[in-house]
Design goal:
The chain has 235 residues and is α+β, with helices and mostly antiparallel strands. The chain is built from 5 helices and 8 strands. It has one domain: archaeoglobus fulgidus dsm 4304 fold, CATH 3.30.2170.10. The protein has an 8-stranded mixed β-sheet, sandwiched between helices. A hairpin with a 5-residue loop joins strand 2 and strand 3. Helix 2 crosses helix 3. The mean pLDDT is 93.
Length: 235
Amino acid sequence: MAGPGPPLVDLGPWPATCREAAALQQAWRQRVVLRPLGRPPRLIAGVDAAYEGPRGRVFGAAALFSYPELELLEEVGAAMDCPFPYIPGLLSFREIPVLLEALRRLSRLPDLILADGQGIAHPRGLGLASHLGVLLHLPVIGVAKSRLAGEGEEPDREAGAWRPLFLQGRIVGLILRTQTGRRPLYVSPGHLVVLQDCREIVMGCVRRYRVPEPLRAADRLSRRLRKAACPSLPG
């Protein structure tokens, strides 16, 4: 049963082809708003998804944390048939429906969401984090383990070091070292945040591992859901 999390979102006709999906991204990029948070969030949700197979079920998870204490308050999940094939740059059309359903099952509305994907650091300016933020009218930050688009130099080795990520002459994100000597993350504004917010929030959510705790918890839960539903699949 849905809780007082984000309300049910009317997605309208979901794109059936790559051309339709890319056209929606081109149109919706104009809806992305980048502005400072104004005040620190008190509740942060991490969202992630795992897959049964290329076109099987997708398992979405949302993990709600207090901030800056990083106390895990709640974990919820959802599952559904995967609505779109795997195509680089079109991840949001595979994951957004199940992530929205997971978020809707939270008992509290998050102030900010961390999404395992890109924000505006995307060939058409509307990665998963931006798409999700526009739909929910909530601040969302994209945190990715690999680069989808753009260029930038490797940051220094110490935790907190960063370098700008450029795309077509514009800064669209940060290459951020969250732990000394570990591989950096690619962080970009999704919606209703700016680069400084992204750096401060992501670093504030990092503890023992390079990936922020809300995203680690969501990743673990999505994998547990997949394992419970599909025991034969590797964990």
